[in-house]
């Protein structure tokens, strides 16, 4: 669709990378400087929770975003190489995402907090399940054993469309998570207009802008002459 | 982009309408049966708040969604007529959205609750501001006085892309609002796994599926033979 706008992907990849760095720094400052740091085992259970936003944002969303953008970041690289990087980045993202979700459950269980009652948790579990389904279909159809060329060609736009749907859901889930955690903190006394509240809210805004840039990169062509952005290179 | 998938808009308009009815019923049941009803003036300030989710979901999001889909709902109608319905529906949506936001502020102010500190409020204010900018540009470029035909043709894909960006932001804001209100209620004793919690969370899921259907309708062609979904009819 962005092909019809006459914009190329390259400048948006730079914007996306800058916003990714900003979001990564912001979530680290939040969880380390404001929330006390990160730990997989600690007497202070909050440190276990802190791993959750860091892994979900940097591991799951940012690495997943780089995987999405990889064909437009390196448009001249050998297609098999970019496809392999796409697969590896998504694999690391989903593993780090699973560890991040584990940390949230561990924090809940160790602290006597209920699991899976909030819209954040529902959308989050649904989203990583869809992400996993997308990974499996993508692996089987495009990597090993790989479908017949005409099947791949028909499946690719669905892979892109469903992938972007799952991607937007991950962004929405991240926004819900930031709001939910901050609401808990504010209900137990955190200043509603303090530095930490503003840091978390601005992290939410940066994630929205980052996600928008990534979606534009995904649908925009790598080169101006291409008619459609989502299939820059033959599928076989 | 969905044009490349070979799907037509029509079946997705039916899905969207069914989900819109479901979401509307769910938010009304929540605000009337569970939360005590709706009022612009009342001793029970909660009734004033209840107008907010009802107007934002039914007035702002559902009417705005119908406006987005109108070209695909009535593909054979005269283009000037559908364009006028598109404009009128978006105008009603933005007015009802503004009234809905007013009710949230009125509830806060009458109850001594702080304004504009949450990510929901930040994204919400930002989104309706962008919606207003989109309305003004659309009115001037496509309705009155109207830009030159070649300018319209160049502006239309941007109108669609920016419109869909704003639309996805309204959906994200709705999800944040549902989670925020439910979190407040649960922090003051509402059952985390009770009927009301499930109703609100499922409303959030229905809104996500509804929004996905609307976006597919917007990018899919009305007829299979059209090459691109976002410009089914000449712009002039």
UniProtKB/TrEMBL annotation, chains A, B:
An MF annotation (GO) of this entry: oxidoreductase activity
Gene Ontology cellular component annotations, sorted alphabetically: membrane
Cofactors, names only: heme b
Keyword match Transport: yes
InterPro entries hit by this protein: CYB561/CYBRD1-like, Cyt_b561/ferric_Rdtase_TM
UniProt cross-references to Pfam families, sorted A to Z: Cytochrom_B561
Record protein name field: Cytochrome b561 domain-containing protein
Organism the protein comes from: Oryza meyeriana var. granulata
Upper classification of the organism: Eukaryota, Viridiplantae, Streptophyta, Embryophyta, Tracheophyta
